[in-house]
């Protein structure tokens, strides 16, 4: 039996402590909001994986339905949906993102 889109998304989230659903990938972001989140995570030195939602209409719509959040990028840390670009940017600027990573046991290379 083929896995559903939701099962696939959950498997990606479960398999990767820091998972970013975005347009493009970490080496070639294809929108400014996705690029900003990649830049923030890279600046922190966090190891993360990406899923390019542009590769599949099912995944592009599926992640929005899955999280009940209307836009990408979407950041998940240890299975918890954190938010999109604005939330991640605000958390980064006020130090909450670094704190969250530490609390979740995610290594920060540039802390």
TrEMBL record:
Gene3D superfamilies: Glutaredoxin (3.40.30.10). [2Fe-2S] cluster binds at residue 31. CDD domains: GRX_PICOT_like. PROSITE patterns: GLUTAREDOXIN_2. The keyword Iron-sulfur applies. GO terms for molecular function: 2 iron, 2 sulfur cluster binding; disulfide oxidoreductase activity; metal ion binding. The keyword Plastid does not apply. Keywords: 2Fe-2S, Iron, Iron-sulfur, Metal-binding, Redox-active center. Residues 18-82 form the Glutaredoxin domain. Belongs to the glutaredoxin family. Monothiol subfamily. This is Glutaredoxin.
């Amino acid at each position: 039996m083929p896995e559903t889109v939701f099962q696939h998304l959950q498997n990606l989230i479960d398999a990767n402590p820091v998972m970013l659903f975005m347009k493009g990938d970490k080496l070639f972001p294809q929108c400014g909001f996705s690029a900003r989140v990649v830049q923030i995570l890279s600046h922190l030195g966090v190891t993360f994986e990406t899923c390019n939602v542009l590769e599949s209409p099912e995944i592009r719509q599926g992640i929005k339905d899955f999280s009940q959040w209307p836009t990408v990028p979407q950041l998940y840390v240890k299975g918890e949906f954190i938010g999109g670009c604005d939330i991640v940017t605000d958390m980064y600027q006020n130090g909450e993102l670094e704190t969250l990573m530490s609390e979740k046991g995610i290594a920060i290379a540039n802390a």
